[in-house]
């Protein structure tokens, strides 16, 4: 077993920061010590196998991205990152755990959908991974299968109020699933957009010849997100099921969540980097020489990017500060422009939905610290500690403390990261949704369960380093 001492850094947790040395023994954190400590009279730096000098740097728990879609079949194609490429890119960016969504398609058994996801991921991953379960067909058999999910280490499932004919559940199905969730303690994750109403708007826009990516954002109006968020909250309230609303982009949806939380309900919200930085006008409405008006397809995702004139970004940053929104995941769902996004040329509704960001979440949120939106400690909380607590991994993940997995990132606040396809990008995509973003910080060294997988701009891990992690019930409930 290898022993490692991470020496001289500032250990940052959700509750504070202090100069400390971290001793790693095999896959586990053994001790967090005052700087330069001896242990039982032995100079640690001399007796360990490896010393990592973290002087002037932050030592943080590895990022947990609780919302990814590796290899997701969608819109007649599949997300372009495999578990191998996507988890490697995650490691490059300081994320050491992902929670991906196993899919039950319509007509399929949940057990079979889950088994297929295990098969895709096993032996491929660079970092540890867990699964949520997408339930695309709520029926009696699915409800029975839901009752056994927690025993499989899958303590959360996702329903869709959007995408009629694909993943959509109606209110009756949602109610029944939530009743099971209230009974079993499963977290209900909700894609909250009014899909049937959106589909009417989509058809009306297309009939008027409005087929550019920009109109994806027009059709998926914020009213559709606010209404669905409210409806999900009410159904959760009625059943007593805890609720986690994914990819929140509209400030009006944030207000719905905040009101329910203030009333004492177990309701939580996640946002994503794209909603904090990108907009309907600047990205979905973009033009380029290469792609013309179709340039905006790069940023077609649901919920959509919102209008900069409505100040959703400011409200989301504010909600992150005040804990009206609890955490940030990427909703990493990459598609190449060529042959994938291109499927929707001339009809925005056929553009596969999704943005790739798994590599950049830690950096993009750190820039929020530099820009004064959030504190250093809040950065760690919303990217690692709360995701661990929310989804039943805390203690093992999300914290630097004795006994925890040694998933650790050494982050250099004096470093710099230029994001783009040519520079830093390891995702399997032919463009970057973040091209040209400059980050005032850098992921220096990444340990995944004690193994150094990224160091000094080199990847040192291999496919299969990462294991499936069984999760417990949420540790974040009121
Ligand atoms: O656009 C998105 N979000 N694609 C992934 C599927 C989902 O709804 O999360
Ligand atoms: Zn979704
Ligand atoms: Zn509040
Ligand atoms: Zn998603």
TrEMBL record:
<dbReference type="InterPro" id="IPR011778">
    <property type="entry name" value="Hydantoinase/dihydroPyrase"/>
</dbReference>
<feature type="domain" description="Amidohydrolase-related">
    <location>
        <begin position="58"/>
        <end position="453"/>
    </location>
</feature>
<comment type="similarity">
    <text>Belongs to the metallo-dependent hydrolases superfamily. Hydantoinase/dihydropyrimidinase family.</text>
</comment>
<dbReference type="GO" id="GO:0046872">
    <property type="term" value="F:metal ion binding"/>
</dbReference>
<dbReference type="Pfam" id="PF01979">
    <property type="entry name" value="Amidohydro_1"/>
</dbReference>
<keyword id="KW-0378">Hydrolase</keyword>
<dbReference type="InterPro" id="IPR011059">
    <property type="entry name" value="Metal-dep_hydrolase_composite"/>
</dbReference>
<dbReference type="GO" id="GO:0016812">
    <property type="term" value="F:hydrolase activity, acting on carbon-nitrogen (but not peptide) bonds, in cyclic amides"/>
</dbReference>
<feature type="modified residue" description="N6-carboxylysine">
    <location>
        <position position="158"/>
    </location>
</feature>
<dbReference type="InterPro" id="IPR050378">
    <property type="entry name" value="Metallo-dep_Hydrolases_sf"/>
</dbReference>
<dbReference type="InterPro" id="IPR032466">
    <property type="entry name" value="Metal_Hydrolase"/>
</dbReference>
<dbReference type="GO" id="GO:0005829">
    <property type="term" value="C:cytosol"/>
</dbReference>
<protein>
    <submittedName>
        <fullName>Dihydropyrimidinase</fullName>
    </submittedName>
</protein>
<dbReference type="InterPro" id="IPR006680">
    <property type="entry name" value="Amidohydro-rel"/>
</dbReference>
<keyword id="KW-0479">Metal-binding</keyword>
């Amino acid at each position: 077993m290898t022993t490692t001492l991470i020496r001289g850094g500032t250990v940052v947790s959700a509750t504070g920061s202090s100069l400390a040395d971290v001793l790693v023994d095999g896959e586990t954190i053994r001790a967090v010590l005052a700087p330069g400590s001896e242990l039982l009279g032995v100079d640690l730096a001399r007796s360990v196998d490896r010393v990592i000098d973290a002087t002037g740097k932050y030592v943080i728990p590895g990022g947990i991205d609780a919302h990814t879609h590796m290899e997701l079949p969608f819109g007649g194609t599949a997300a372009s990152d495999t578990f191998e490429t996507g988890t490697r890119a995650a490691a490059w960016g300081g994320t050491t755990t992902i929670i991906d969504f196993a899919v039950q398609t319509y007509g399929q058994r949940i057990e079979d959908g889950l088994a297929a996801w295990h098969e895709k991921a096993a032996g491929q991953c660079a970092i540890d991974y867990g699964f949520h379960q997408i339930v695309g067909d709520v029926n009696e058999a699915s409800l029975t299968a839901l009752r056994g999910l927690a025993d499989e280490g899958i303590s959360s499932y996702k329903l869709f109020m959007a995408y009629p004919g694909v993943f959509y559940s109606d209110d009756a199905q949602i109610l029944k699933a939530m009743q099971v969730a209230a009974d079993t303690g499963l977290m209900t994750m909700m894609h909250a957009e009014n899909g049937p109403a959106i589909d009417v708007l989509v058809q009306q826009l297309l009939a008027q010849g409005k087929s550019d990516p920009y109109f994806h954002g027009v059709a998926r109006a914020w009213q559709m997100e606010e209404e669905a968020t409210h409806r999900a909250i009410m159904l959760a309230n009625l059943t007593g099921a805890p609720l986690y609303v994914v990819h929140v982009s509209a400030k009006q949806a944030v207000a719905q969540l905040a009101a329910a939380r203030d009333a004492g309900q177990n309701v939580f919200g996640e946002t994503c980097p794209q909603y904090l930085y990108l907009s309907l006008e600047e990205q979905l409405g973009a033009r380029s020489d290469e792609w013309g008006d179709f340039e905006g397809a790069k940023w077609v995702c649901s919920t959509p990017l919102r209008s900069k004139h409505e100040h959703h970004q400011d409200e989301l940053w504010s909600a992150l500060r005040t804990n009206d929104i609890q955490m940030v995941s990427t909703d990493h769902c990459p598609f190449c422009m060529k042959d994938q996004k291109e499927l929707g040329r001339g009809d925005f509704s056929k553009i596969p939905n999704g943005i790739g960001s798994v590599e950049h979440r830690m950096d993009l949120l750190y820039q929020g610290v530099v820009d004064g939106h959030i504190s250093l400690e809040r950065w760690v909380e919303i990217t690692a500690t709360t995701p661990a607590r929310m989804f039943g991994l805390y203690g093992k993940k999300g914290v630097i403390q004795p006994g925890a997995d040694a998933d650790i990132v050494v982050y250099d606040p004096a470093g710099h990261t230029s994001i783009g396809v040519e520079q830093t990008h390891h995702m399997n995509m032919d463009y970057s949704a973040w091209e040209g973003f400059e980050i005032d910080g850098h992921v220096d060294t990444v340990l995944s369960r004690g193994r150094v997988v990224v160091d000094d701009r080199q990847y040192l891990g291999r496919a299969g380093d990462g294991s499936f992690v069984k999760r417990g019930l949420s540790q974040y409930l009121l």
